[in-house]
Design goal:
Layout (H helix, E strand, L loop, with lengths): L1 H12 L4 H8 L3 H9 L23 H10 L11 H11 L7 H14 L17 E13 L2 E12 L4 E7 L4 H15 L5 E4 L6 E5 L3 E4 L1 H10 L2 E4 L9 H14 L5 E2 L2 H15 L12 H11 L12 E6 L5 E4 L4 E4 L8 E6 L3 E5 L5 E6 L9 E3 L3 H8 L10 H4 L2 H9 L2 H18 L1 H14 L4 H12 L24 H13 L1
Helix pairs in contact: 2-3, 5-6, 12-15, 15-16, 15-17, 16-17
Length: 506
């Protein structure tokens, strides 16, 4: 990606021809043209099969790693090159017979991992149309009656003083990329350059001399949309004062009072429209122009949106424990998958809002709301549907399955009171109710069943319909003079028949 980014930078920003780039980089002109014309830099296989890089080198990798780690404390001009590593292995390791190309591939990959590759960077001094600055702020909000201490991303355009914001539950790579993509698509273009702080979300290393090493996902996103990333000096937020001011302005004018809404995704779309409306005001410096007037020139300078949108989700693989659970955020956030996936490798697709669990064939098993916070405590998200479906097929093993111990106490007590022959039907009914309106509704139905001592499937379903079906309650009947007095009814069915026959004749 570094080489591809360099090719596109030489062509689009510095105006070199394809032939000149081929001479400078040493690549074939067909290769240069391929990456100049390419408009989709999504990972072609976000969930690739795990491969061992250079397996023939496995016996020698620990020794190579040790040499390269020692280079971190050595002068730059006295560090191992691929050729030097290959020569040392041939000289010092008996029986070594791997090719130089194999060694070079592994050394190049390991140097990137150890941040031993130098890069150059620069910071422009003037703000031209199409340039922008990015920053995060903190703000509370209430979604569907639940209060969150969240973060919001701001993209400011200093030339026009226009800006846009997007609200999130936290601050991570997914929140950053989703915010930028949403704003790019809303304004119909991409800033020529964006100024950033040295946040750990993006920057992995600050290199002496002003360079930055960034995460591959950010570099892939940057190359896909074609903007230049500019990073401030450490502890120098004042260098992008426009974004700092916009963070304060948007909080005071768009997030006060604390916003209440039902859906964060819908509210973020509303915020983009509010930002458009806010631009219809006088510019603080150029009194004869509005912000919207100047933003027209910003938009003319924007880069064209690529035809293919960028997939901002993170794809990663984790291993579940014996209960089918796994952890994220350094073990502080626990999620469930399925008992059928216990002690196995599974795939995750992680966005800013959701954690989608998939099996190795990439079939969705369950989707969680992503957990945020929990720095001082451990948080857990439990989706019961796969567990209830699994145990409903094997009701006799409930007590010994491990799933029984994870259930709420009331549900344990209720299942203990059911007959063995009915337990499978009860568990199947609970899984259906959970799939329909969530596990909390199934648990509330169980609590009502305990209250009424209803321990059969039909009674459980009737209680659920009474609680959650959209059926209007009937008013109580009251006795009045229109109801006739009824004498003692006959006690034998033949007497009923005779009575009905006389009524019909009458």
């Amino acid at each position: 990606m570094d080489q591809i980014h360099r090719i596109r930078q030489l062509f689009y920003e510095q105006g070199h021809s394809i032939s000149e780039i081929a001479r400078q980089t040493g690549f074939n002109w067909k290769t240069v043209r391929k990456y100049v014309d390419k408009d989709d830099f999504n990972d072609p296989d976000p969930m690739p099969e795990q491969k061992n890089l250079c397996p023939k080198l496995d016996p020698y990798k620990p020794l190579i790693d040790e040499w390269l780690k020692e280079d971190k404390t050595a002068p730059r001009k006295q560090r191992h090159t691929s050729k030097r590593v290959h020569r040392r292995l041939k000289k010092e390791v008996k029986g070594f017979n791997c090719s130089y190309r194999l060694v070079a591939m592994y050394v190049a990959d390991k140097k990137k991992e150890l941040n031993l590759v130098r890069k150059k960077g620069f910071i422009p001094l003037n703000h031209n149309p199409g340039e922008s600055q990015a920053d995060f702020g903190a703000a509370d909000f209430v979604e569907n009656s639940i209060r969150f201490s969240g973060k919001y991303f701001v993209l400011d355009f200093p030339y026009s003083n226009n800006g846009y914001l997007q609200l999130h539950y936290g601050e991570n790579m997914e929140c950053l990329l989703e915010s930028m993509r949403a704003i790019f698509e809303h304004i119909g273009g991409v800033p020529t350059e964006i100024w950033f702080d040295n946040t750990k979300t993006i920057v992995t290393k600050i290199i002496l001399g002003g360079g930055r090493e960034v995460t591959e996902r950010f570099l892939r996103f940057q190359t896909h949309y074609g903007f230049e990333a500019v990073f401030m000096n450490p502890d120098s937020g004042n260098e992008k004062g426009g974004a700092e001011s916009k963070v304060k302005y948007t909080r005071k004018n768009m997030l006060v009072p604390v916003p209440h809404f039902l859906s964060l995704a819908e509210y973020n779309r509303q915020l983009l429209k509010e930002c458009d409306e806010d631009a219809d005001r006088e510019h603080y410096r150029f009194k004869d122009e509005t912000i919207e007037d100047r933003f027209v020139r910003d938009k003319k300078a924007l880069r064209k949106l690529p035809e293919v949108p960028f997939d901002t989700a993170l794809y990663t693989q984790v291993r579940t424990n014996k209960w089918g659970k796994f952890t994220l955020n350094k073990g502080k956030h626990t999620y469930s998958s399925s008992p059928g996936l216990a002690e196995q490798e599974i795939w995750l697709r992680i966005s800013a809002e959701f954690v989608e669990v998939m099996d190795l064939e990439h079939h969705t098993v369950v989707t969680h709301r992503r957990l945020y916070g929990g720095d001082d405590e451990y948080l857990e998200s439990m989706e019961w549907l796969p567990y209830l479906k699994y145990i409903a097929r094997k009701p006799r093993s409930l007590r010994n399955s491990g799933i029984y111990g994870m259930m709420p106490e009331n549900m344990q007590r209720y299942l203990d009171s059911c007959k063995n022959s009915d337990r499978g039907k009860i568990l199947k009914a609970l899984s259906e109710l959970t799939e329909r309106t969530g596990f909390d509704s199934a648990l509330q139905t169980v609590n009502q069943a305990i209250l009424y001592q209803a321990i059969d499937e039909d009674s459980l379903r009737n209680l659920y319909r009474r609680l959650y079906a959209d059926v209007p309650p009937l008013p109580p009947l009251t006795a009045d003079g229109r109801i006739p007095k009824v004498s003692q009814m006959p006690s034998r069915l033949t007497d009923y028949d005779a009575l009905l026959e006389r009524r019909c004749m009458a």
